[in-house]
TrEMBL record:
One of its GO terms (molecular function) is phosphotransferase activity, for other substituted phosphate groups. The chain crosses the membrane at residues 41-66, 116-141, 153-170. Keywords: Membrane, Transferase, Transmembrane, Transmembrane helix. It comes from Dongia mobilis. GO terms for cellular component: membrane. This is CDP-diacylglycerol--glycerol-3-phosphate 3-phosphatidyltransferase.
């Protein structure tokens, strides 16, 4: 199924010159990964402490874009500048899960939002990423199949943050979006498992 992740090669191409300058300046792939994770936790903490301050939610779409760029740059640094490592692979996967949880769980603290759906969406997202990683365990590649991969979640949560930040009423409509994210997340888990098994068998 299609995913925003399919656009990543073009995004990476745009960031390659910046990655080269960062490498020349001594920036490492693991350093970028750790910085993105730490900054995600800071932004998530700010939103969790002051969820009722609606303009702060404008930080979310802005930071999600920055984080997406940082993730792409750390990949370029690892692949193209000799910084690939086993530690980096672990940090990359763990960092994504920790960052997602830190940035998305504050939605559960919004007035009128049912925490159950937000927490379930995050749990399903973690299982989805784990399923993608398990592709390598069964002899396939790391699976990024959609329709609700990391980039797709970032786009939806970023739009939600933007809507809240510009004054959209907070309420039960967010529950319906979270429920849809959960459903699409379950479809993603099935797609990744099926495609991993198909690739391994082939």
């Amino acid at each position: 199924m299609p995913s925003i992740y399919d656009l990543k090669p073009r995004f990476v191409a745009l960031l390659r010159p910046l990655a080269a300058r960062l490498a020349q300046g001594g920036v490492t792939a693991n350093g970028m990964t750790l910085a993105a994770m730490a900054d995600s936790m800071i932004v998530g903490l700010v939103l969790a402490i002051w969820p009722e301050v609606t303009w702060l939610w404008l930080l979310l779409p802005l930071f999600l874009f920055i984080r997406m760029a940082a993730n792409a740059i750390d990949g370029i640094l690892a692949r193209e500048f000799g910084m690939k490592s086993r530690l980096g692979a672990i940090l990359n996967e763990v960092g994504d899960v920790v960052s997602d949880a830190a940035l998305y769980l504050p939605f559960a603290l919004l007035p009128g939002v049912t925490p159950f759906w937000v927490i379930l969406a995050v749990v399903i997202a973690v299982i989805g990423e784990m399923t993608g990683i398990l592709g390598q365990v069964v002899g396939a590649s790391r699976r990024y199949d959609g329709p609700m991969g990391k980039s797709d979640r970032a786009a939806i949560f970023g739009i939600l943050g933007l809507a809240i930040g510009i004054g959209a009423p907070i309420g039960g409509w967010i529950d319906w979006i979270m429920a849809a994210i959960c459903l699409l997340g379950l479809v993603t888990i099935l797609n990744r498992a099926r495609q991993a098994l198909k690739e391994a068998a082939g």
